[in-house]
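Internal tracking record. Fields below are filled automatically when a chain is submitted to the structure queue. Please do not edit lines marked as system-generated. If the sequence contains nonstandard residues, flag them in the REMARKS field before resubmitting.
Queue: standard
Priority: normal
Entity type: single polypeptide chain
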Amino acid sequence: MQPTPGGWNSPNTGATNSSGFTALPGGFRDYVGGDFNLVALNGYWWSSSVSSASNAWVRDLNYYTSNVYRNYSSRTYGFSVRCCRD
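SYSTEM-GENERATED OUTPUT FOLLOWS
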């Protein structure tokens, strides 16, 4: 698989950018060892909402579907953030 010009691996199924959010597949940083994983395959973004004392909500996208997923993860992982301005 080769990354597309936007950084996503092919086939980048269903990608239209109709939302206007140009998501880039930064993967995530593992808290054990600090390795980066799933770069060019998945993008993960922190939500501002916590789900428990040690977890927070995460939105994620991947290259093989157009779905947006909502999961929770340990706050020790390194995910991307999206900065918005009014």
